[in-house]
Amino acid sequence: EISLQHGAHRLGRRNDADMARWRAYGLGQFIHWGLYSIPGGEWNGKIYNGAAEWIRTWKEVSPQAYDSLIYRFNPIKFNPDSWAAVAGRMGVKYVTITTKHHDGFCLWPSKYTNFTVAHSPYKKDIIGPLVKAYNKQGIDVILYFSIMDWHNPDWRYDIKTRDDSIAFNRFKQFTRNQLLELLTRYPTAKGLWFDGTWDNSWVKQAAFADSLETEMRKLRPGLIIGSRFRADEYGKRHFDSNGNLMGDYEQGWERKIPEKIEDVHGNDWDCVMTIPENQWGYAKTWSGHIKTADELLEMLAKCVSLDGNFVLNFGPKPDGTLRTEEQTLAKAIGDWMTVNKEAIYNGEYAGFAKQDWGYFIKNTGTNKTYMVIFNVPVSGLLRVTTPLHTVINKAYDLGNLTQTYTPEEIGTSTYFIHLHQQTPKKPFVIVLETGETGKSHGTGYEKAK
Ligand SMILES: Cc1ccc([C@@H]2N[C@@H](C)[C@@H](O)[C@H]2O)cc1
Fold it and tell me: Which of 106, 160, 232, 322 could tie 116 with a disulfide, CB 3.0–4.6 Å?
């Protein structure tokens, strides 16, 4: 261990109520919305093959022309209550919304720049009504904020000269002002999701970022900030120079999911995922593979089974409506969640050996273990190896409690659950009520005769 001033300030998970609430979410929604939604990945009739929210960096686009999109931002059909209703129907417990993406356009009327909704034809605050609408649906809000700000002339990718550091010091104050402004304007926000923090300019600000994080936490006790916000004094990000996670949860799983429990190092984490391969902002043309509801449900179950939250991204259209494909997916996921939410909310790693048929999830509320089944084996036999001294007392369908199973014990802590013939063509859940050997009324099911 080396002594660090600006590394991790806490070892292991946060154990307070605010973090327990975040840990229990399971399913979240990401929303990327801003000026980039207007071109939607196309410019002068040509399709940009990068992520739509990065179109300002395309050589075909002059930054000034892009920035003039502010005069076309007027989402007349924007209705936050309808977005929140779609999210509520989908079963999300929290939403992460872009307040300012890399382009620097602010969806709230910031006092510290004119590049905001207040100076667009729309004029009104977007973030406030969104927070209110989502909170009304019982959905918590996390504010996405990009440190990197292409529009602000004081932004630098690196600090090479004295002029750079003079400009960047102004930029640091601007950033601090905007963050304190957001926390003050939107006091119900549960956390901040930082992005745009990989460039040397910011990585060199270990002390500043550390003190800013402390200041924000003091202003908003319980605030949840991930590992992407700051680097330690040796430039290490996410994990400090002693290998300890900075921030409250690991923010490294963008468009990817850990394979096994060892990959998450006992930390909380979220996975943020796009529906197409790599589009966060609205893209008129979705090319490549578009994920189906079943694929997304499997990602959700996999994340929760490994102690993470799964956050699915929506890129609303410039007029403020949600694209049809996203609404259809939200409903399909919601229909599944209506039946199976007990396997997702309050879900955590169950400690059962991973099996090919799907995922084990322990619900910390019900204390039951849920088998989320995606791949029914041709044998119709679902193998279950319980943790040591754990026996299965009951097994039944979550979707139909009268559909029970008598696990066949085939070895030490190992059982086969015999599926009934007509297994559904959709992911389904079997509930296991377990006990500790010697503590339950019996020793579980008798050995197979
Ligand atoms: C290389 C790269 C940088 C930033 C991103 C941003 N993070 C996602 C959450 C989106 O905001 C995307 O624009 C994606 C890829």
Answer: 106
Name which of 368, 370, 366, 383 is nearest 433 in CA terms: 368
Q: In which band, very low, low, confident or very high, does the pLDDT at 442 lie, cut at 50, 70 and 90? A: very low
Q: What is the ipTM of this complex?
A: 0.99
Q: What span, in angstroms and rounded, lies between the C-alpha atoms of 96 and 32?
A: 9
CA of 53 to the centre of ligand 1 (A): 8
Q: pLDDT (tens digit, 9 = 90+) per residue, 276-297?
A: 999 999 999 999 999 999 999 9
**Residue whose CB lies within 8 A of the most ligand 1 atoms, among 195, 273, 277, 310, for a mutation test:** 195
Global pTM value: 0.96
> From the CA of 437, how far away is ligand 1's center (Å)?
48
CB 384 within 8 A of CB 353: no
Distance CA 352, CA 360 (A): 7
The closest residue, in CA terms, to atom 3 on ligand 1 is 196
With a CB cutoff of 8 Å and minimum separation 6, the contacts of 179 are 145, 192, 212, 216
DSSP-derived letter for residue 60 is: T
Q: Is 392 in the pocket of ligand 1 (CB under 6 A)?
A: no
Distance 33 CA to ligand 1 centre (A): 13
